[in-house]
Design goal:
- Its EC number is 2.1.1.37.
- It is a single chain.
- By secondary structure, the protein is α/β, with parallel strands linked by helices.
- The protein has two domains: about 200 residues, 3-Layer(aba) Sandwich (Rossmann fold), CATH 3.40.50.150; about 140 residues, DNA Methylase, Chain A, domain 2.
- The chain is about 35% helix and about 15% strand.
- The strands form three sheets. Strands 1, 2, 3, 4, 5, 6, 7 and 8 form an eight-stranded mixed beta sheet that branches. The protein has a two-stranded antiparallel sheet with strand order 9-10.
- Strand 2, helix 2 and strand 3 form a beta-alpha-beta unit.
- The two termini are about 20 Å apart.
């Protein structure tokens, strides 16, 4: 018997986690965020869900408002990726940073709705920040609410799970102890480094935009050239968000001198001096997964063409299917893609969580069948 578990997505953004859980068979009841453009994207792609504009830093008030809007709907699973600037290795690393406490709103939501399970995603830095104090604080907060909590031993690498990107993320998963769940075990890597999906396998079928900058809606001009592209093109007959950038001749000249897989260190002396930080002038390698997709669009370049990747190319590298459309200005779209959890990674974890949940559902169903038999 198929059973749809209801999901509440906090800090939903465009919907990377939501998409993964939907593909795994869950029902997305609502997405909550304070970013209006991202919420419009979520609303467009999840028309059956409730879209809620809410400032989750106002924990108690926000949860009450969310509860009213979901109107008594049963919430089985709460998921969320609280903004990670405070936790990030490149951020302030300040324990008192208010952004480091945004996870508290997830705690408040779990306490209010008492879901069977929850998932939190964050950057690798959360594991070691202040010698692990932040990680322990997160774990203990949910243990106090009666949850058995599992944490990834080390950050999960998205490329290990079929995402064409070297993105690392930490995950916390908890199950309500009173339902007699066992401790959750995260899925093992599915691919070896030799089997990783490459940048070329991800985006080589998309128009080059050499002669023009493209447009927001366009037709496919080639057949898919890899299994990954077949998967990304499912249920889609159009390409969205594939708009190029009009670079100056100077910028294109600089990019042209960066070898495949190279960066600013490979440029001749005096070239590209305006940007010399770690990720500056980075060209993707066609035979490797991409670097971590960020929220901007000025530092990474196509492995072949002398331009930055389009929103759609970044979305492919994040494992968003082509049917998933991003709303807003180009800058807002890039930010939405960069902030998202790769849906394919989310889906694989969600499927494992579903199996874990289904044991409890099967037990409930068996008890119901026994009761009916006794009544007969």
């Amino acid at each position: 018997m198929e059973h749809k578990y209801n999901v509440l997505d906090l800090f939903c953004g465009a919907g990377g986690l939501s998409e993964g859980f939907r593909e795994a068979g869950y029902n997305i009841v609502a997405g909550v965020d304070f970013d209006i453009a991202a919420l419009k994207t979520h609303e467009h792609n999840f028309p059956e869900s409730i879209t809620i504009l809410e400032d989750l830093s106002k924990e108690e008030e926000a949860i009450k408002n969310i509860a009213k809007k979901v109107d008594g709907e049963r919430i089985d699973v709460i998921i969320g990726g609280p903004p990670c600037q405070g936790f990030s290795l490149t951020g302030s690393r300040d324990l008192s940073d208010s952004r480091n406490r945004l996870y508290v709103s997830v705690v408040e939501a779990v306490e209010h709705f008492k879901p069977k399970a929850f998932l939190i995603e964050n950057v690798p830095g959360i594991a070691t920040l202040y010698k692990g104090k932040v990680k322990e604080q997160v774990i203990n907060s949910f243990k106090d609410l009666g949850y058995i909590v599992s944490v990834t031993e080390k950050p999960l690498l998205a490329a290990d799970y079929g995402v064409p990107q070297m993105r690392k993320r930490m995950f916390f998963v908890g199950y309500l102890k009173e339902l007699n769940y066992k401790k959750f075990v995260f899925p093992k890597p599915l691919l070896s480094s030799a089997e990783y999906v490459t940048t070329s396998e991800a985006i080589s079928d998309l128009p080059s935009l050499v002669e023009d900058v493209g447009k927001d809606t366009m037709e496919y001009v080639t057949l898919p050239q890899s299994d990954y592209q077949i998967n990304m093109r499912r249920n889609s007959n159009m390409i969205f968000n594939h708009v190029g950038t009009n670079h100056t001749e100077h910028v294109k000249w600089v990019i042209s001198q960066v070898p495949e897989g190279g960066n600013h260190k490979d440029l001749p002396p005096g070239v590209g001096d305006s940007r010399k930080f770690n990720e500056a002038w980075t060209r993707y390698h066609s035979n490797k997964p991409s670097k971590t997709i960020d929220t901007g669009h000025r530092n990474h370049f196509h492995y072949r063409w002398n331009r930055v990747p389009t929103v759609r190319e970044n979305a492919r590298l994040q494992s968003f299917p082509d049917v998933f459309r991003f709303i807003g200005t180009k800058t807002q779209q890039y930010r939405q893609v960069g902030n998202a959890v790769p849906p394919l990674l989310s889906k694989i974890i969600a499927e494992k969580m579903y199996k874990h949940l289904s044991k409890e559902y099967a037990a409930e169903n068996l008890q119901y069948v026994k009761q009916i038999s006794l009544n007969i």
